[in-house]
Predict the structure.
Amino acid sequence: MNEDGCLLIIGGDEETRHRKDILQRFVDLAGGPERNLVLLTSASAEPEEMAAPYHDILSQLGVRRHASVHTTTREEANDAALAERIAHADGILITGGDQKRLMANIGGTALDRALHEALKRRCACLAGTSAGASAMAGHMLASGFAEFEPEKGAGVLGAGLGFVQHVVIDQHFSQRHRINRLLSVIAQNPYLYGLGIDEDTALVVERGVGIEVIGAGGVTFLDGRGMTTNAADIDNGERPELIGVQLHVLPSGSGYVLPGQGGQAVRLAHVTREAPAPIQEFISNLTKRNPLS
């Protein structure tokens, strides 16, 4: 059986009033309501307002031990006691806000290392929503705008937390019409996969095993590794050629395991379909462990 941490990558604006299936899944993936859960609100300029509805819902779901961790300086993020709280959590949810604020605050600090430690040593569930989702990638989509067409220079990348590598994650994907922004990034960085997650939707990643889409929407995979583009030869703001980009859309309820991994799943034990060939490499990359976690 697979014994490892898992990721829950959420597209933002998860339903909290009637359906609570995404947050219920977070609790389940962390080991149940008796476990120790932490909200990391460092991406937000209003941490108390950000955390309050989550604490209400976690209480409704029967969780007794849930707390917030917020840092505003790198000195705070290097505090050993604070990092220890993160390292010993069973489930950690990185809330929304501004991913640039988050990484400027915690990137490379003791708290950053504690997140990886929790995933690797405690087999914790690490979740991120909205800005927290984008920051889960090693190459983080920091900012950008391209509503009507792909444009060179429309997406700005920065260093992320690195729980998934060679992937750029965008959130609020369909609702904010962000496919052109993600295509713009892929045009200039064809070695990166693009992953777009709709609002009130999450991608469950059991490392080394497979994935599942839950919630109200879907996820979009973009693969430009085999494409032809003139992005290097045009000016910023111009539309690039993108020939041969592969696009895959998985609605809620889609779930796949890698070949030979069906019997190894713990968090995805109910998922039995083997990933079809066109997305096997994408899923293999998403579920790959890295040296830190």
Q: What stands out?
A: The chain is about 25% helix and 25% strand. The chain has a mean pLDDT of 95. Residues 6-286 form a domain with the Rossmann fold fold (CATH 3.40.50.880). Residues 197 and 219 are 5 Å apart (CA to CA).
